Amino acid sequence: MKSRKISFTKYLMCYHVFSITGLPPVPSASRTGFAEFSVRERMREKLKAARVSIQNDFPSAEEAYKFFTFDFDSEAERKKTGIKKRNELNHEEEEAEEEDAETHEEGQEEDETVRTKMPENMQPRFLEDEGLYTGERPFVSPSNLNILENRILRQERWFGDDGKILALPNPIKQSLTRPPIFSLEEGIEPELETLYRKAIKVTAANQYLVGSGDFQGPFQLDIDISGLIFTHHPCFSREHVLAAKLAQLYDQYLARKQKNLTTLLTDKLHALRNAVQCSIEGGDAAAPKPIAQQSIPEYKMEIRQTRRLRDAEQEKDRTLLKAIIKVWKEMKSLRDFQKFTNTPMKLYLRKEEVDQRLDEKAYEAEIQDEINELLEEYREEYEKKMEEYKAELQEWKSWKRAQAEHTDEIYESDLGEEPVKPVPPKMVNSLEIEQQVREKVDSFRRKPGEPVLIPELVLSGSITPSELCPRAEVLRREDVKKRSSFIKVLFNSKEVSRTVTRPISSDFRVHFGQIFNLQIFNWPESLKLQIYETTGISSTTLLAELFLPVPETTVLTGSAPIEEIEFSSNQRVMLDHEGVGSGVSFSFEADGSNKMTLMTSGKVSNSVSWAVGEKGVPLIPPVAQQNTGIASALKSIDAIASIGTSGLTDMKKLAKWAAETKLDPNDPNNAALMQLITVATSGEARVPDFFRLEQLQQEFNFVTDEELDRSKRFRLLQLRNAEVAEFRNYKEVPLHEREISEKIFQDYEKRLRERDVVDSKHYLDARRAVVANYLQKVRESVINRFLVAKHHFLLSDLVNEEEIPSLGILGLGIFKLAEPKRPLKPRRKERKKVTAQNLSDGDIKLLVNIIRAYDIPVRKAVSKLQQPSKHSRSFNEMFTASPSAQSPGENIDWVLNQVLVRPFVEVSFQRTVCRTTTAEGPNPNWNEELELPFRAPNGDYSSHSLQSVKDEVFINLFDEVLYDVGEDDHERGSGIHTRVERHWLGCVKIPFTTIYFQARIDGTFKVDIPPVLLGYSKEKNLGNDRGYDSVRNLSEGSYITLFITIEPQLIPGESVREKFDTQEDEKLLQAAEKYEAECTSKFPSRQCLTTVIDLSGKSVFITRYIKPLNPPQELLDAHPNSSQITAELVARYVALIPFLPDSVSFAGICDLWSTSDQFLHLLAGDEEEHAVLLCNYFLGMGKKAWLIIGNAIPEGATAYVLTLEQNQYAIWNPSTGCFYGQFDTFCPLKNVYCLISCDNIWFNIQEYDSPVRINFDTSKAKLWKSFFSRSSPYPGLSSIQPEELIYQPSDKAAVVELQGRIEKILKEKIMEWRPRHLTRWNRYCTSTLRHFLPLLEQNRGKDVEDDHQAELQKQLGDYRVSGFPIHMPFSEVGPLIEAVHSTGVHTIDIPSVEFALAVYVHAYPQNVLSVWVYVASLVRNR
Amino acid sequence: MAAGGGPDVFLVSVSGEIESGQFPGLDELYCKFCFVYGQDWVPTAGLEEGISQIACRSDAAAAALVWNLPLDITFKSTNPWGWPQIVLSVYGPDVFGHDVVRGYGAVHVPIEPGRHIRTLPMFVPESTSRLQKFTSWFTGRRPEFTDPRVVAQGEGREVTRVRSQGFVTISFNVVTKDMTKLGYEVTPSDMESHSMSVTEGIHNY
């Protein structure tokens, strides 16, 4: 009880402070604080006083009397009976103060009783005294309370003798005391029988209910809807738009005119000036009155302000007038242009002539006044500044003097700052001011003598009849006629009535003129109007909803004004006639510039009022009466009930209500309200123009946001939580701020900064830098998408559950029981797969099994005969598989002369190198398993990180050469000194991601052997087994058989489960899905591709990518007479575009297909892009070409190109540019799944899918299942490829520069790799090599070997040269360096070795660069 | 930087044991445990993972399977976020003798130093359908979590359905070092100072 009282008084006092003080506003918090403080303080003082009196004063007579008569109130006495009268001692010190009697007595009483209930030596605390909020306790009668307290305090017998809590026996009687009930009806339980009761009106329905006790009958709200005016409507013609604008401007004009602020302000200005004049003059005449003198500056201040205001108003007037005239002119020109009139609007401009002379005089006088005032103003300012200046100067001078005195102690005074010598202020020029004023006045004031223009808008114009209008306009008018509209009235969001449907008139006004009488019981929660428009007969659309304010209780029917409420709708309407539509941009200009977009909008004129009853009593729910009468319990709790919803936004009302209902300011329930009220009542009582959720949040912040932002540790934690790439796996965030170095963020910030800055330094080529930048951005966005998707889980991500076995598998399972335990031919069992997440460094190993190699180049004796150079193979030669003609005689000769080659294989991965033993001969057999450790980037073994590993496995083939180094013969006798040299022969590169996705790679690969290997020859070794050779020699080159896998086997991550948005037809997509499902159900291992994802993340039907495109003209012109060479050249061009697997750039999330122009622009892409481009080129060259979706080694799932050449099919590998016949066994393409052309997809439904064993004739429906067939024909999908590819010629100068830079970098690198040896460069050899390279490019690396070697031999006769050219498409320098490093040229450590390195860059159109690097090592023959 | 005074990390040493389990109707169970902790935590000593012996029920102790598998591990950390959790998974043979999972459970290592006893309710994921339930019962390949650590994380749990299975009792002895020095208060202060600090805090506020 006490707490309530205190808080109320406190609260009231707060409010007194607020309401009484008329002081200028001071910060509210302090005042509240003060108020509360003062109350608390007063309480404390009183209590203290009481205590003091207890201790010091002797009891007065009255107290003594009270004590002895035991005149306590009954309650206190009853309390005491429960307790022993221990506290009698204190009673002689009953309180002295009369007014505090009750509180104190009770307090005293409580103190005592409390003391017995508290532990020893504890002071009782009263939380409410400390200003804390304590809720109200529920009422329990004091006697019960006492009984309970007594029981707890005194009686220890809670437990019975049996150790259980004391309890009474079960009070439920065993026998029934009530007679059983029998039902009258059969089959219904008597308890469930229903009885009829008369309905009672339920009163307490919701919080807005008023007058729960006395029901006063229905109240009435009258809603008058008089009409609707559209300020914009989709059917508006252009003229209507202008007319609406004009009308609006005119309304504004009228309103301004009515206010007439300009004149008002001008008058005020005059009055002020007069007053100033008077006081100055008066001051001259009589003694200067101090008051008048004092008020002059105030007046002046006022004048300045008024002048500024007036100028602003005048300017507004002027611009408004100008705008009106401008719109009118536009309208007139529009009418002239369209030759008909739609609106009856006309604007008259009435001129009011003025007396030229008088006007001019007034004008001049005004200007003069203003100038004078301004001058004065400036002068004042000048004086002020001058004074300041003087003061400063004085200071400076004194400092100077001091300086002069202490010349000896210069070093000391130097420490202080030397004051700058002040500059005297400048006085403004009066001419300048005049100039300024005149300019200003000219701009917005009427010129003297100019007539005053008064616009007048009339609706007297005539509208051109429909017969004379053009067709579009007639259509528009007819459309308007068809339209009509009505309004629904919603009370508390329920429709209560609606107006009749009225047509929209040609001037877009609708007249309703209906009054709705709403009989209501409760205070309205909301009133809403819905405006509907109907077009023709059927369609009805909701245009807008608008809320009507619930009227004040004083607004009664009859006196209520008609109000206009504006509405607007964001509906988009586009019309095919003159109507401008809504939400659609249109323009008045002929050229379509200056577009504007208007939304349907308008005004509803209505009025809402309370009805007046028969006896003149307003039928209003009794809110108003209750406000003045007794505060009902309900109202004091709910603010809305008492002041209405509209009152909630009115701070003053709310505050008043709060004061009246005596809200407890300490109750947390009221916290928001109290804060609002204190804010509102403190300063200006206005609603803030911002809206804030959780306005109390700020108080709960530990530190300010800025401080939080500054904290490095917090930032680190935040970035890690956001999974930013650099910090995702950051371990152990340091505990102290000081331990976090700025360096951690440097990389990240640098990346953020450079996101938009293209840094060409690292790329050697500005274009690639741009592309890299773009790719980086795409990658980031895709990765972000992936990161979001990663947090969506499916059951299968969390729970391993066996599939329900089908009958077949069950059957097999039974069958398996009968199988032999140890079969003679064991099958390879699937290894257990490991989820990548619980792996760490060193757990994963890469196993490379090198089995054998074929046809390795052999060393050539120096004196070897020149072989006739081979001719490039033609298509025919390949298919017929003719063994090369060589005479047996030569053969024998060759066998005898054979110089051994001692090849070995070295596998390098992540700079770890492993090698096999050395075998002998050109067809070695190693069968060795090499084990290489694998390290994931950042120690992150999640599948998504593994997918983005960019490392490649290099499998290098070397020849081990032994040289005798015995200097002289006598040494030879005692020991053998040999030096081992290794010569690089070729390599196979396999990206790690391929291994990761394929799980194992097993097959025979073509070794990438440089076109020229100095000192080696690639001979046809027809010696041993003819039958075998005849097959093998179909393809030239060396081959190596490998088996690569990862131990333990990793599960590749799944692609993102995300449905991409698309622009394809829904039917097509369904058909595609069905087709895919049918195909995969028959051949689950064959991939069927119908839709792919383009760069913007939309799925696109695959055939849209295939379209004949023009290859660069340069390539077509190179060999005009041989289509085959041209085709090869084109394929080479495509292969020269750098290869960049999507799964690396986009982390295996999704396979993105870019169109050919994007591909050429990015100059990077994976197999699909290469294949699509090549296929398009072949189509463009008039060939028959298809895209093959299939499986190849080592790429895995890939895309190849199939062409039909002279009734033979050729398979092109787009990423190498090689082609193979259909029956070529060394074709890397192993499985064919489907074929894609520009207008169809064929799925392979043949038994086999190896290209050798299938028929490529797509017309056979039994072999190929086509997507579009006769029943569902090709709908003619437009291609997403461009019409034509435009090639930019490459910049020759840049290419030459690039060439130089690459050469320099490579040379530096080689020197860097040989830190212990001197690296000498043989310039002569280098220049020779440089000379060869363009030749190689010209011949595409073929047929130059022998001439070349001969020439080199001739020129460098006394050197043993070993070297080779490396050819690569250019993307970055990194791969080039890697390639050179992997050849191990630098590993030769013969002291006298010399090196030669030449680089040649050949530019093809569109900046496709082919890079040749020729590296050679030279050892002088002795 | 270390010279700047004060420790850089705090240490939490956990010892104790996985005492016993109550799995009504099941016998011959063994359990595995592992610790799951945040990125800022590093185990400095002790075993992170372990596996117990197979325990059989006896007539003496009615329902308990006693493992008494000792735990002993020390962590160092810079951040209480990611406080270590122990994840338990219990396995045992079913009717046909297949080894199946009998329960997963996780609990945070107590943050207060001292001896604590925790009883972990255990649960197993449910089959998605009745047919699957039957086949999984028959084949002995019941649904399992892909990784027992799933039960220590909150993400993605909404897609699973589990059945409660039994209880495991673990005792922990926790010792911390340098936590107070670094400003982390884990020990409850005695009543008086506690209540005082509350009111003081409010006054300040």
Topology:
The complex is a heterodimer of chains A (1422) and B (205).
Chain A: H1 2-20, H2 28-56, H3 61-69, H4 74-82, H5 88-91, H6 101-117, H7 142-153, E1 219-232, H8 238-259, H9 261-285, H10 290-338, E2 346-352, H11 356-405, H12 410-413, H13 430-444, E3 452-458, H14 471-482, E4 483-491, E5 494-498, E6 502-503, E7 509-520, E8 527-535, E9 540-548, E10 563-568, E11 585-586, E12 596-597, E13 601-610, H15 623-628, H16 633-637, H17 639-647, H18 651-661, H19 671-682, H20 697-700, H21 705-710, H22 712-721, H23 743-754, H24 766-790, H25 795-798, E14 799-800, H26 807-817, E15 845-854, E16 858-859, H27 875-880, H28 888-897, E17 903-909, E18 912-915, E19 925-933, H29 943-947, E20 952-964, H30 969-974, E21 978-991, H31 992-998, E22 1000-1006, E23 1016-1017, H32 1026-1032, E24 1039-1047, H33 1066-1082, E25 1091-1094, E26 1099-1101, H34 1113-1118, H35 1123-1136, H36 1142-1145, E27 1152-1153, H37 1156-1162, H38 1167-1180, E28 1184-1192, E29 1196-1205, E30 1208-1212, E31 1219-1221, E32 1229-1236, E33 1241-1244, E34 1264-1266, H39 1292-1313, E35 1320-1321, H40 1323-1338, H41 1345-1355, E36 1359-1369, H42 1373-1383, E37 1394-1404, E38 1408-1420
Parallel strand pairs in A: 25-27, 35-37
Antiparallel strand pairs in A: 1-7, 1-13, 2-3, 4-5, 4-6, 4-8, 8-9, 10-13, 11-12, 15-19, 15-24, 16-23, 17-18, 17-20, 20-21, 22-24, 25-26, 28-29, 28-32, 29-30, 30-31, 32-33, 33-34, 36-38, 37-38
Helix pairs in contact in A: 1-2, 4-7, 8-10, 9-10, 11-13, 17-18, 18-19, 35-38, 39-42
Chain B: E1 10-22, E2 30-36, E3 41-46, E4 49-51, E5 64-77, E6 85-93, E7 99-108, E8 114-125, H1 130-139, E9 144-145, E10 162-177, H2 191-204
Antiparallel strand pairs in B: 1-5, 1-10, 2-4, 2-6, 3-5, 6-7, 8-10
